[in-house]
Amino acid sequence: MAVDYDAPRVTPEDEPNVALDELKTEKPGRREAAPDVDETDLADSFELPGADLSNEELQIQVVPVQSDEFTCMSCFLVHHRSQLAREKDGKKYCKECES
Predict the structure, then answer these.
(1) 3-state class (DSSP) for residue 13
(2) What is the pLDDT of residues 46-61, one digit of tens each?
């Protein structure tokens, strides 16, 4: 939606006065739709702590750290070497952790 920044702005004094009772009354055809949510569908998507996941199988491929990447010793994320802020005693730290 385009906004006309040159249009005059409306101040609170210029706004029409509407009675509070009029705002509180429910007007027909102005109802908002309530979402139809089934609680059992929501419960199935939650994993409880300590749940037995021994029969689950990972569906992703794990790629080892590449030669141009490093693991930050502060946040333990793998970053590209361009994100290296400093290296001290063989430990590497990223720019985000050093800022």
Answers:
(1) coil
(2) 777 787 878 888 788 8
